[in-house]
Amino acid sequence: MKIQVASIPEEGIELDFSQKEGWVRDMAAHALKTFHRAGDPITGHLSVFQTMENISVKAHVHLPVHAVCNRCLKAYDVEIDVHCERLFTPLFESQRRKEQEEGVEKELTQEDLNFSYYEGDEIDVGQALAEQIVLEQPMIYLCKADCKGLCPQCGINKNEQTCSCEERRLEESPFAALKNLIKK
């Protein structure tokens, strides 16, 4: 969703949105890729306020994710809530600041991470939301916190069945002799 900066009223914009809007479907498909299905129920709220040339965007999105567990390869669904707060400032101001601060090292703060630039007279809110959804994805998906995964020998899902592969592997291990040392 692209918002024209000149069209933001003084009181701001408050907008509820859902998957019915094309930009929401595109944003979710772009951010979630294979973890998204067309027609998934997506809801959210967007607030846009302008202070001089700076634009403050706050959004909340609730959407389903169709994930695959990284340990047992079982498909499962989870609902996620994504909160996004972003301050947009015109790009031409940043060029002046860049020239002034050339060569100066600076440690990033939390405010710096919620900061973006816009160029021209429009802001792409859908792109900012898609970025936030990508950032809030877990590094690994687990169907449950104590998922046992797959047996590396026979391939069964150890959450659903047990196997004797691990016992056999321990006995055949070159470290099996150390087991006897511990008992003494």
List the helices and strands and how they pair.
Blueprint: E1 2-4, E2 13-18, H1 22-32, E3 43-51, E4 54-68, E5 75-90, H2 91-100, H3 110-113, E6 115-118, E7 122-124, H4 125-135, H5 165-172, H6 176-183
Parallel strand pairs: 5-6
Antiparallel strand pairs: 1-7, 2-3, 3-4, 4-5
Can you tag this structure with a few keywords?
184 residues, alpha+beta, 2 domains, five-stranded mixed beta sheet, two-stranded antiparallel sheet, 6 helices, 7 strands
Concise structural overview:
The longest helix is centred in the N-terminal third of the chain and has 11 residues, at 22-32. The chain has helices spanning 22-32, 91-100, 110-113, 125-135, 165-172, 176-183; strands spanning 2-4, 13-18, 43-51, 54-68, 75-90, 115-118, 122-124.
Tell me what the structure shows:
With about 180 residues, this protein is of the alpha+beta class. The protein has two domains: about 1-135, no CATH class; about 150-184, no CATH class. About 30% of the residues lie in helices and about 30% in strands. The protein has six helices and seven strands. The chain has helices at about 20-30, 90-100, 110-115, 125-135, 165-170, 175-184; strands at about 1-5, 15-20, 45-50, 55-70, 75-90, 115-120, 120-125. The chain has a five-stranded mixed beta sheet with strand order 2-3-4-5-6. Strands 1-7 form a two-stranded antiparallel sheet. A hairpin with a 2-residue loop joins β3 (about 45-50) and β4 (about 55-70). α1 runs parallel beside α4. The longest helix is centred in the first third of the chain and has 11 residues, at about 20-30. The radius of gyration is 25 Å and the shape is elongated. The protein starts with a strand and ends with a helix. The model has no long low-confidence stretch (mean pLDDT about 80).
